[in-house]
Amino acid sequence: MSLQSVRAFLAARAPDIVVLKTAESSATVALAAAAHGVEPAQIAKTLSLRLGDRVVLLVARGDARLDNRKTKAAFGTKPRMLDAGEVERLTGHPVGGVCPFGLAHPLPVYCDVSLRAFAEVVPAAGSPNSALRIAPQRLADLAGAEWVDVCQEPRDAG
């Protein structure tokens, strides 16, 4: 199971990180933010993208949107989102629980610089009602991620 693969990954590499489970679903950014008492931007969403013939994971702040120009400049092509079946088959995680830890198959992981706005972010942990709290740099280090700048600048709420 996906949650178990994340727990095994963390037990081996970061035993101090605790997986948080909620009774309610945290499968969307809004639900996760409410469940964990943080602003939506602080949720670290993991997008599963097809770039030509390869698949990568991109972790970005919860309110971020991909910038087509930046994405093409960074990756050399326009990304396509994977469908739910492909996501689960390649990551081992269901949509709503996808994270860069405990993957079913090794995939390149990228972290968008938008995550650096926070001291701590909250990514999913392999199921639609699990998450963890982690510093963005530690997330990138554990996932073996490369930093990229592929999201639009956050819009001010004013």
Describe this entry's structure for a reader:
With 158 residues, the chain is α/β, with parallel strands linked by helices. 28% of the residues lie in helices and 20% in strands. It has a single domain, classed as Alpha-Beta Complex (YbaK protein). The chain starts with a helix and ends in a 10-residue tail after the last strand. The chain has helices at residues 2-13, 29-36, 68-75, 84-91, 136-143, and strands spanning 20-21, 43-51, 54-61, 80-81, 109-112, 122-123, 130-131, 146-148. The chain has five helices and eight strands. The longest helix has 12 residues, at 2-13.
Q: Which key terms come to mind for this protein?
A:
single chain; 158 residues; alpha/beta; YbaK protein; six-stranded mixed β-sheet; two-stranded antiparallel ribbon; 8 strands; 28% helix; globular
Q: Would you kindly provide a brief summary of this structure?
A:
This protein has 158 residues and is of the alpha/beta class. It has helices spanning 2-13, 29-36, 68-75, 84-91, 136-143, and strands spanning 20-21, 43-51, 54-61, 80-81, 109-112, 122-123, 130-131, 146-148.
